[in-house]
User: Which sequence fits this backbone?
């Protein structure tokens, strides 16, 4: 019964996050992310029973039919949505939290060759990873974080943050309450972007330009003020040297 409950949750997750999904039957038949998750749960059970070769074979079959490679040792939470999915790779010790969304070409990989240690990232709840992003290493991506398309993330991302670039840099951090309020107003953010916002990198560049313009304006104001003070000081000095010049200054 638990298997069917999880399948139902997966279908509801797809319907809530993909406007192209028209029916339950279409999701069951045509969404490779659903197929990959079903086969991964079978492989995971075999892996836990120490049938490692059979588990890897089931994972291999899933990759052949879906283009999605999930190692049997990986831990996948509930209501995870792998959209499109082609080229997604999730490593052995990776942990994907509940309600995460992963787009095509994403890699949750490791950077260490040591056996018996956690080598892959841990995703918190509600993380969105854009197409082509590479999340590499043993660290945590916090709850509600967003990873931009083609980003290369090699260090921890705080909860509610947005990370873009190569290597990825954090451009936006929101507290939990503000993030939840924004999410409730805007709905699901496909590909880690909000429908009415610019790209986070563009927002950062615009902010730098605005800051530079404000500084230049302030410098000009200070320069003009210093020039006025200098003229007044020069005039006072002339009067002090020759009081008779006061009449000419007044004239």
Assistant:
């Amino acid at each position: 019964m638990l298997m069917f409950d999880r399948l139902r949750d997966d279908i509801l997750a797809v319907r809530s996050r993909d406007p192209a999904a028209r029916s339950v039957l279409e999701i069951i038949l045509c969404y490779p992310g659903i197929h990959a998750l079903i086969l991964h749960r079978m492989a995971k059970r075999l892996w836990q029973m120490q049938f490692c070769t059979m588990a890897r074979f089931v994972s291999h079959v899933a990759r052949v039919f879906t283009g999605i490679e999930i190692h049997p040792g990986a831990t996948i939470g509930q209501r995870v949505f792998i959209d499109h999915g082609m080229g997604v790779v999730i490593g052995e010790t990776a942990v994907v939290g509940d309600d995460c969304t992963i787009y095509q070409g994403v890699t949750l990989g490791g950077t260490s060759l040591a056996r018996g240690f956690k080598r892959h990232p841990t995703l918190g709840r509600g993380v969105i990873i854009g197409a082509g992003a590479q999340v590499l290493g043993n660290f945590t991506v916090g709850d509600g974080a967003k990873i931009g398309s083609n980003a290369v993330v090699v260090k921890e991302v705080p909860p509610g943050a947005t990370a873009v670039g190569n290597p990825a840099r954090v451009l936006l951090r929101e507290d939990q309450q503000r993030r939840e309020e924004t999410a409730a107003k805007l709905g699901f953010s496909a590909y880690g972007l909000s429908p009415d916002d610019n790209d986070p990198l563009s927002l950062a560049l615009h902010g730098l330009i605005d800051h530079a313009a404000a500084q230049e304006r302030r410098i000009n104001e200070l320069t003009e003020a210093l020039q006025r003070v200098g003229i007044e000081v020069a005039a006072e000095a002339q009067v002090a040297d020759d009081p008779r010049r006061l009449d000419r200054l007044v004239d």
